[in-house]
Design goal:
Layout: E1 2-6, E2 9-11, E3 31-33, H1 35-50, E4 55-61, H2 67-75, E5 80-84, H3 94-108, E6 114-118, H4 129-137, E7 140-152, E8 155-162, E9 165-172, E10 175-179, H5 191-199, E11 203-205, H6 246-258
Parallel strand pairs: 1-4, 1-6, 4-5, 5-11, 6-10, 7-10
Antiparallel strand pairs: 2-3, 7-8, 8-9
Helix pairs in contact: 2-5, 3-4
The structure holds flavin-adenine dinucleotide.
Flavin-adenine dinucleotide binds next to α1, β4, α3, β6 and α4.
Length: about 260
């Protein structure tokens, strides 16, 4: 089974800062693997360990420093990784990002059976990239996945979170899965993993390596743009009340409203 993992490097902070072009400021901020993608990696490696013939390739579209997260994935048990990186890809929205990733998967992996993404990236947070890759590749898709529970004759069985519980779904491959936080934790790499990652050669592919025109990538290939980005107004501190009983609480609340 050919498994492809899509992972994104995100700022290691909840305090997202914006550039004057309304894009996320990445300079001067520590970066990490998007937390949901850590579960995608763990899920892919677990599946590979169950099957005899699985090969896992990890891919990220981003600047050259994203090589770091690809190496980390290799240290966790992924077989190989490549970066999709070119100045012409800058300013991509989710359509152009998924189009570029899908083209790179087709060109550099060939007939993938399974693509695993995270459900959301903590910075952009659209949750559009995985489903959009599925659409570009014409694959089935399952979102909000918590676990892969079985694989038989080209069909994966997965557990998917829904509003009031968990559904079990059978999905025929090829498919894209978007992973949530799982009930298991991503593994810590062992020393052999660090050595493998240190020696791994991460190929970087640009515009000339994928079958897309300059009009289909980056800002030119993006039908959406961020016209405005702003922080919601900070709310006032409020007032803490410490009533002795519910009756007093109701009275204090009434007095507060009537003030
Ligand atoms: P989500 O869709 O929430 O991510 C879900 C999953 O998709 C992730 O967990 C991961 O598995 C996968 N995934 C997402 N992104 C990648 C990736 N790059 N590589 C591999 N897997 C991935 N961002 C910039 O960094 N620089 C820019 O200049 C820039 N310009 C933009 C301009 C516009 C007009 C818009 C709308 C967005 C721009 N962005 C830019 C943001 C960029 O489009 C998104 O970061 C990207 O499309 C992914 O969307 P998301 O962050 O919402 O990820």
């Amino acid at each position: 089974m050919k498994i492809v993992l899509c992972i994104k490097q995100v700022p290691d902070t909840a305090d997202i800062k914006w550039t004057e072009n309304n894009t996320i400021q990445r300079e001067g901020v520590e970066s990490v693997i998007n937390p949901f993608d850590m579960y995608a990696i763990e899920t892919a490696v677990r599946l590979k360990e169950k099957l005899n013939d699985a090969h896992v390739t990890v891919v990220s579209m981003g600047p050259p420093q994203a090589e770091e997260i690809l190496k980390k994935a290799v240290s966790m048990g992924v077989d190989e990784g490549f970066l999709v990186s070119d100045r012409k890809f800058a300013g991509a929205d989710t359509v152009a990002t998924s189009r570029t990733l899908a083209a790179a998967i087709k060109e550099k992996v060939g007939d993938a059976d399974l693509v695993i993404c995270g459900q959301f990236a903590t910075d952009g947070d659209t949750a559009q990239t995985g489903p959009s890759i599925a659409q570009q590749l014409n694959f089935a898709q399952v979102t909000y996945v918590k676990e892969i529970t079985d694989y038989k004759d080209g069909v994966l069985t997965v557990k998917k979170e829904v509003e009031d519980g968990v559904e079990t779904i059978d999905v025929k491959l090829p498919a894209v899965l978007c992973m949530l936080k799982c009930d298991y934790e991503p593994r810590r790499p062992l020393i052999q993993g660090f050595v493998k990652a240190h020696d791994a050669k991460i190929q970087s592919y640009g515009m000339d390596d994928i079958k897309l025109s300059p009009e289909e990538v980056g800002m030119k290939g993006s039908p959406t743009y961020v016209s405005k980005a702003f922080r919601p107004e900070q709310k006032q501190g409020g007032e803490v009340i410490t009533p002795k009983n519910p009756q007093e609480a109701a009275k204090m609340l009434k007095d507060f409203i009537n003030r």
